[in-house]
Design a protein that fits this description.
alpha/beta, Aspartate Aminotransferase, domain 1, Aminotransferase, binds pyridoxal-5'-phosphate, pyridoxal phosphate, 41% helix, Aspartate Aminotransferase, domain 2, AspAT/PAT-like, 391 residues, PyrdxlP-dep_Trfase_major
């Protein structure tokens, strides 16, 4: 059968993730040091795993309310109030989702009509553009640049706003650049959103992982912004809980109601065992987050220092667990550089163009891997760079 006519156009239009493609090449190779996958190398803290086990032991294996367990939503509401300085009602303004991934998808589907434009800053997380396309939106990228630390500037944003612009997607700290945004820039962007009546989806999944300036400001906390913002957060990164697949969305009640409609028919609810683990994470996980963060901080400093010293120009990212060195001076495309690096040294890093066209000329190196491996990887990359430099 010819399946090309059977697959929906919106789905056929979307490419496979460049990260996954690259990592299929890594499968089956021995001795590869991976700076590739954006996933904590720590196991989920034991007390959180134990809470999941206890929950199963007690026989808690049912569906929960579509919105998620009320006890968890109350804890999320308290956490978001303390950490992001925005108040959401646990009963009606918080929705527990299957990871931030689901929250991105249903936020877009709840807001978009076909042809609505969604603006996002690039380089960006691989799911944004495909999720916009699959929700029948038009994806509009605003490039960001190394000279600005890959942060978003209001004047660049204003240039792409049209009467069809409906949503702005933000992600600070950013995957793949580790960029953060200053409060002044965030304020200017918020003013533009009010002026042009844009809704905002802000993915703040890395907000605990900030190093130089630990104060995180959410756009939702700025004047006039809560009413037009969907704040997304989750447990995967800071709590090292990727496999639990748990995230949440906070937004005004009518928006949560719209997202909940999609969630209840497609997902029903997030897994109860993961929700039990998340309750423990919010009640007793803060110390573990601080320990993991201190370790990432040390690894970031080491990696940035080594890369710059070997001539791979690299800004010091303020957050997340990625560095984004520039490799353009070697005259190789990102993909070719990454492939040759893998072939020659068995070090895997993701080509920057996997995160959008303006990531060309860069490489994403994740430092959520052991210091021991980072040291070996840096030694191998340095040898590779010396070979490239040899006339
Ligand atoms: N948003 C960003 C910016 C990410 O980097 C990731 C994962 O890498 C996700 C969302 C997905 O998060 P989750 O595991 O909660 O679905």
């Amino acid at each position: 059968m010819d399946y090309s006519s059977k697959i929906a156009r919106q789905v056929a239009a979307v490419p496979r993730s460049g990260i996954r493609d690259f990592f299929e090449l890594v499968q089956g190779r021995d001795d590869v040091i991976s700076l590739g996958v954006g996933e904590p190398d720590f196991q989920t803290p034991w007390n959180i795993r134990e809470a999941a086990i206890y929950s199963l032991e007690k026989g808690h294996t049912s569906y929960t309310s579509n919105l998620g367990l009320l006890q968890l939503r109350k804890l999320i509401s308290g956490y978001v109030s303390d950490f992001f300085a925005v108040d959401y009602k646990a009963e009606s303004e918080v929705l527990v989702t299957v990871g931030v991934s689901e929250a991105i998808d249903i936020a877009l589907r709840a807001l978009l009509n076909p042809g609505d434009e969604v603006i996002y800053h690039e380089p960006c997380y691989v799911s944004y553009c495909p999720s916009i396309t699959m929700a029948y939106g038009e994806a509009v990228a605003v490039p960001t640049f190394k000279k600005d630390g890959f942060s978003l500037k209001a004047d660049a944003l204003e240039k792409v706003i049209t009467p069809k612009s409906r949503v702005l997607m933000l992600n600070f700290p950013t995957n793949p650049t580790g960029a953060t945004i200053s409060n002044d820039d965030l304020k200017e962007i918020a003013e533009l959103c009010v002026k042009h009546d844009l809704m905002v989806i802000t993915d703040e999944i890395y907000s605990e992982l900030r190093y130089d300036d630990p104060e995180h400001t959410s756009i939702a906390s700025l004047p006039g912004m809560k009413e037009r913002t969907i704040l997304l957060h989750g447990f995967s990164k800071a709590f090292a809980m990727t496999g639990f697949r748990l995230g949440y969305a906070c937004a005004p009640q009518p928006i949560i109601e719209a997202m909940m409609k999609i969630h209840q028919y497609s997902m029903l609810c997030a897994p109860i065992t993961s929700q039990a683990a998340a309750i423990e994470a919010l009640q007793n996980g803060a110390e573990s987050v601080e320990k993991m963060k201190a370790s990432y901080h040390q690894r970031r400093d080491f990696m940035v220092k080594r890369l710059n010293a070997m001539g791979l120009d690299c800004h010091s990212p303020g957050g997340a667990f990625y560095v984004f060195p520039e490799i353009s001076k070697f005259g190789l495309k990102s993909k070719e550089f990454a492939m040759r690096l893998l072939e020659a040294t068995n070090v895997a890093a993701v080509p920057g163009d996997a995160f959008g066209a303006c990531g060309e000329g860069f490489l994403r190196c994740c430092y959520a891997t052991s210091m021991e491996d980072i040291v070996i990887a840096m030694d191998r990359i340095e040898q590779f760079v010396r070979i490239l430099e040899t006339p």
